[in-house]
């Protein structure tokens, strides 16, 4: 008799279960494998792949719609599969085209292990939501993007969570933004996302006006949105809070300081605890050693630590 196996629950299903249970989800922004590994080691229950961070790390460019679907999907797949039980929420920009491309984006993200993604109503040549001068598509075009994502999810039988983001607040104001989110909700979006919330009062208002639909808060410090802590966001009624620059901003500060020190002194001056072994252990060194040993390999019989 063949052994029966239990299929593991997907990250998308886990995220849906969290949302349905009323849990609050705090997801730090990560942009590459190393930042994701660090966030996982700290113990976060979800991660967010920032499009701005992906563009900066992969291309050294600003968040101006430069990263393609293939760029974003490849990065998301790598991050999502570092720890498949930790849901990854990923930026999907505008969906990268009309309904056919949005459907393809949905399918590729779902098959890559992504748990949720957000699609916005900017034009294809988009920019970061916290930059000025954004240009938007009309509401029917935005809704067609959301509907295409929802229908694609249903066709492939995926639980991937579809998040509808509107950037209309800056140019068209609150009422238009609310109308766009209501239309996206009616088209089947699972979560709403009002980009660039301008005050705590406005944050509370959007929760009230769209209740009980789950809402996401994008906490970009020093951007359009005032500083709101995770505890405050939860108290307001948000179900998800993403912090896109959670890894990118500290990385900039630390890397710049370290390189300036190297240029001035000729030495990086890192702490003695930051050995190659310690850094590689963040990236799964010990697990790799165990895999080799379990398979009968002998590559690590002498260990990896240097003799003292």
TrEMBL record:
Q: Which PROSITE patterns match?
A: ISOCITRATE_LYASE (PS00161)
Is Lyase included in the keywords of this UniProt record?
yes
The EC number(s) attached to this protein equal 4.1.3.30
Its recorded reaction(s) are: (2S,3R)-3-hydroxybutane-1,2,3-tricarboxylate = pyruvate + succinate
Alphabetical UniProt keywords: Lyase
The molecular function terms in GO held by this entry are: methylisocitrate lyase activity
Enzyme class (EC, first level): lyase
Do the record's keywords include Glycosyltransferase? no
Q: Which family does it belong to?
A: Belongs to the isocitrate lyase/PEP mutase superfamily.
Designated name of the protein = Methylisocitrate lyase
Native species: Rasamsonia emersonii (strain ATCC 16479 / CBS 393.64 / IMI 116815)
Per the UniProt record, the lineage of the source organism begins with: Eukaryota, Fungi, Dikarya, Ascomycota, Pezizomycotina
């Amino acid at each position: 008799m063949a052994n029966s196996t239990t299929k593991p629950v997907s990250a998308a299903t886990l995220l849906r279960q969290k949302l349905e249970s009323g849990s609050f989800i705090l997801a730090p922004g990560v942009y590459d494998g190393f930042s994701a590994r660090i966030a996982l080691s700290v113990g976060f229950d979800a991660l967010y792949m920032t499009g701005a961070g992906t563009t900066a790390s992969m291309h050294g460019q600003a968040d101006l719609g430069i990263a393609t679907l293939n760029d974003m999907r490849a990065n998301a797949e790598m991050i999502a599969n570092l720890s498949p039980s930790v849901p990854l929420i990923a930026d999907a920009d505008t969906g990268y085209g009309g309904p056919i491309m949005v459907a393809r984006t949905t399918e590729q993200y779902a098959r890559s292990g992504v748990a949720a993604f957000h699609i916005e109503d900017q034009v294809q040549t988009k920019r970061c939501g916290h930059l000025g001068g954004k240009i938007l598509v009309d509401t029917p075009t935005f809704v067609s993007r959301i509907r295409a994502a929802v229908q694609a999810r249903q066709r492939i039988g995926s639980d991937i969570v579809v998040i509808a983001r509107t950037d209309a607040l800056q140019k068209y104001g609150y009422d238009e933004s609310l109308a766009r989110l209501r239309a996206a909700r009616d088209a089947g979006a699972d979560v709403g996302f009002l980009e660039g919330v301008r005050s705590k009062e406005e944050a509370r208002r959007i929760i009230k006006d769209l209740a009980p639909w789950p809402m996401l808060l994008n906490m970009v410090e020093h951007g359009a949105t005032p500083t709101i802590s995770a505890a405050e966001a939860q108290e307001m009624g948000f179900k998800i809070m993403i912090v896109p620059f959670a890894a990118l901003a500290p990385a900039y500060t630390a890397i710049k300081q370290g390189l300036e020190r190297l240029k001035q002194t000729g030495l990086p001056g890192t702490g003695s605890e930051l050995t190659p072994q310690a850094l590689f252990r963040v990236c799964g060194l010990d697990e790799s050693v165990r895999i080799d040993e379990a398979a009968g390999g002998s590559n690590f019989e002498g260990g990896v630590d240097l003799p003292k």
